[in-house]
Amino acid sequence: MFGPVGLQEIIVILLVAFLVFGPKRLPEIGRSLGRGLREFKKNTTGLVDSISDELDKPVPRANQANPVPPQAPPTPAPTPQKLVNNPVTPQPSDQVEEVVINLDEEQKK
């Protein structure tokens, strides 16, 4: 939509500026516009240079600042113990209760 400005557009812009500002103020406005563009270019160049300088600096890594302490040596696996050949037999209890639970049809679901 706003492509490069052609010769006709520049002529129209200069004609409108001449009519609005007059022949006496037009050179003064041109000079101040030139100074402003020069200052803008100088500042953008300085900004680009400072950014590129910051990007060129080496970045300290996190692991260099705080080295990882050495780990403890791994412990050996425990040796298996002997199996006991005396099996435990359950003793009969003197008190045995029988519990009967009756469920309704709805509770079975």
From TrEMBL:
The keyword Protein transport is annotated on this UniProt entry: yes
Keywords per UniProt: Cell membrane, Membrane, Protein transport, Translocation, Transmembrane, Transmembrane helix, Transport
GO cellular component: TAT protein transport complex
Topological category with respect to the lipid bilayer: Single-pass membrane protein
InterPro entries, per database record: TatA/B/E, TatA/E
Predominant location category: membrane
Biased composition (Pro residues): 67-79
Gene Ontology BP term (one): protein transport by the Tat complex
Location of this chain's protein in the cell: Cell membrane; Membrane
Coiled coil: none
Annotated region described as Disordered, given as residue ranges: 48-96
Listed Polar residues bias regions: 82-94
Record has Transmembrane as a keyword: yes
GO MF annotation list: protein transmembrane transporter activity
Membrane-crossing residue ranges in chain numbering: 6-22
HAMAP family (alphabetical): TatA_E
Protein task: Part of the twin-arginine translocation (Tat) system that transports large folded proteins containing a characteristic twin-arginine motif in their signal peptide across the thylakoid membrane. Involved in delta pH-dependent protein transport required for chloroplast development, especially thylakoid membrane formation. TATC and TATB mediate precursor recognition, whereas TATA facilitates translocation. Part of the twin-arginine translocation (Tat) system that transports large folded proteins containing a characteristic twin-arginine motif in their signal peptide across membranes. TatA could form the protein-conducting channel of the Tat system.
Family according to the record: Belongs to the TatA/E family.
SUBUNIT field: Forms a complex with TatC.
Protein name as annotated: Sec-independent protein translocase protein TatA
Organism listed in the record: Acanthopleuribacter pedis
Upper classification of the organism: Bacteria, Pseudomonadati, Acidobacteriota, Holophagae, Acanthopleuribacterales
